[in-house]
Design goal:
With 558 residues, this protein is an alpha/beta fold. It contains 20 helices and twelve strands. It has a six-stranded mixed sheet with strand order 3-2-1-10-11-12. A six-stranded mixed sheet has the order 4-5-6-7-9-8. Helix 6 links the parallel strand 1 and strand 2. It starts with 6 loop residues before the first helix and ends in a 17-residue tail after the last helix.
Length: 558
């Protein structure tokens, strides 16, 4: 997973150079794609400068009034919770006396490999740069039961098994491939048992991750799937689920159970190192068979008048670290086509793998975003964490809180606490549904302080190492990985963003052009006008709903 320089990076470099030579305000005013990336600046650039200060102030006041109106009239809804755990990466060979240079592995005999801070009081809970010891597994899942009590369901989105199983095998020449597979199954079994002991009556569903197989990223064979089926037997709700799981590791949970169809994928088969950059979309391939199954389930969901959640470990978009496509290109195209065809049916897309709390696919405005969840394992410079959603009676997700354990702080007696209590409050979103997440990205293109907050939250409170200077290239890359799914669209996004980069510094000052101010002022004024109209209609009705807003944070900090 440590990608080196690729053709993608060279293409991005060329795209940026083209972008810098091709200003949207001079040559691309009619280019819809470029304009959409920057609040329609392609149109704003044609306007003459004017006095925008009063427009912006008035619009801000009207928008605040609109927000109050929404809060005053929103119906109250019962709270149901959904817990998402992923990337636990339990390793039974963690050694607190070894440091991240050797991944804290007890069988690493390098005498120079020591913890970064040998006196750190939290070494027993793990180290940044290493996978999870059993103490961290127990602490995280017990904290989930405390901070996300009595959830409607628990979803474990892959990678209960740890990294470095190949190194474990190499450390002893007598160990066979079957020995390693048994070790991985032992890791998964321990995590599964810990989840069930903390949530004994809660329905729990598991997706296969790349480190839940050996070799990692491999497509599990029938014998291995049978072993996983035995471990997760109570999570496979019926004969149909057991049959499809035995065929390829994917299954459905009927909407009659929770109010939404849960469609759990096995994504290893789509990953580029496994399937190749272009993928194998031959109709007889196992990948095509799973897509056929997925499409059939979406058709049935539409016919039944219900909605579906798509759940899988590896997301289809661009890896934010290596800037490479995670799925083979033909799989990505088919998946995006399904999003287009069944956008009225797909209610959620829940993925993991990136060890970051991210969005993807926000340019697909007709659909919900791909939600990528924080990891328990701190191996990729992230604090350990998990997510608790709040949902209504129909299992529509309304809000969420991300929990984290501050391993990087060096303070004793650390425990999991909310990083923030409400995503909607943290990011100023009216809801989790589109277009609110897309609009969040548009605001981040203008406000580096907002992007810095988002990125700190993405790694659960760790210092920002991936965009330390918030340089334009780095920020543009990250924002484009959030917006796009295909590699081609990602490169085009970087090109357009490079053509139009104008951002507000994180600590005071403004780099907005007069054209930008006009565009923002017009947009905000439009929102304000809508607010006034809505307020007039509300007051004229003389009828106030007997309800209260969902204004309380999802999780209250002690």
């Amino acid at each position: 997973e440590r990608e080196t320089e690729t053709e993608t990076e060279r293409e991005l470099s060329r795209a940026r150079e083209r972008g810098r030579e091709d200003s949207v305000c001079t040559n691309r005013a009619d280019d819809k794609t470029a304009g959409e990336h920057i609040f329609g600046r392609a149109v704003a650039c044609t306007l003459e400068a004017g006095d925008t200060k009063s427009i912006v102030i008035m619009a801000a006041r009207l928008t605040a009034l609109a927000s109050l109106l929404v809060l005053a009239t929103s119906p109250s809804v019962p709270a149901r919770r959904v817990l998402v755990l992923n990337d636990v990466h339990y390793i039974p060979y963690y050694d607190a006396n070894k440091g991240p240079d050797c991944f804290c592995l007890e069988f690493n005999q390098d005498a120079s490999c020591k913890p970064v801070t040998p006196t750190d009081p939290n070494l027993h809970l793990g180290q940044i740069g290493c996978d999870s010891p059993l103490t961290l597994v127990h602490e995280a899942i017990a904290a989930a039961a405390r901070l996300c009590p009595a959830p409607e369901l628990v979803v474990v989105v892959g990678d209960s098994g740890g990294h470095s199983t190949d190194l474990w095998q190499a450390a002893n020449a007598s160990r066979t491939t079957q020995d390693v597979r048994d070790l991985v199954l032992t890791m998964i079994s321990r995590v599964t048992a810990t989840v069930r002991s903390n949530f004994p009556v809660t329905p729990t569903y598991f997706a296969i991750g790349n480190d839940d197989t050996y070799p990692d990223y491999s497509v599990p064979d029938a014998a291995y799937l049978a072993s996983l089926s035995n471990l997760w037997a109570v999570s496979l709700p019926d004969d149909q689920a057991r049959r499809t799981f035995a065929e390829g590791g994917f299954y459905r949970v009927n909407a009659s159970v929770h109010g939404k169809e849960l469609l759990l994928l096995s994504t290893n088969m789509f990953h580029v190192p496994t399937a190749g950059a272009s993928g194998n979309c031959d109709p007889t391939s196992v990948q095509s068979k799973m897509f056929d199954w997925l499409e059939q389930q979406l058709k049935l969901t539409r016919a039944a008048g219900t909605k579906a959640w798509i759940i899988g470990h590896i997301p289809p978009g661009v890896n934010h670290r290596g800037l490479t496509q995670l799925w083979g290109s033909c799989y990505v195209r088919r998946y995006v086509q399904m999003l287009d065809t069944y956008h009225d049916v797909i209610a959620e897309q829940l993925f993991a793998h990136e060890h970051r709390a991210l969005f993807q696919g926000l340019r697909q405005r007709y659909s919900v975003p791909i939600r990528i969840h924080p990891a328990v394992s701190p191996i990729y410079h992230n604090n350990p964490g998990f997510r608790c959603y709040e949902a209504d009676d129909e299992l529509n997700l309304l809000d969420y809180a991300d929990m984290h354990l501050n391993l990087s702080g060096g303070e004793p007696n650390q425990e999991f606490v909310p990083l923030f209590a409400s995503a909607r409050a943290e990011y100023g979103m009216a809801s989790l549904a589109e277009p609110a997440p897309y609009d969040l990205v548009q605001r981040m293109t203008r406000q580096l302080a907002l992007f810095a907050t988002y990125w700190t939250n993405a790694v659960l409170g760790m210092p920002n190492q991936e965009c330390p200077s918030l340089s334009d290239d780095c920020v543009d890359n990250e924002l484009c990985t959030l917006q796009e799914i295909t590699l081609e669209d990602f490169v085009a996004c970087v090109y357009a963003a490079t053509s139009t980069t104008t951002k507000t510094p994180p600590h005071g000052g403004s780099r907005l052009t007069q054209d930008d101010k006009i565009g923002i002022g017009i947009g905000a004024a439009a929102v304000g006008v809508v607010a006034v109209v809505a307020l007039v209609m509300f007051l004229s009705s003389r009828k106030r709903p007997d309800s209260k807003a969902l204004t309380q944070p999802l999780i209250t900090e002690a």
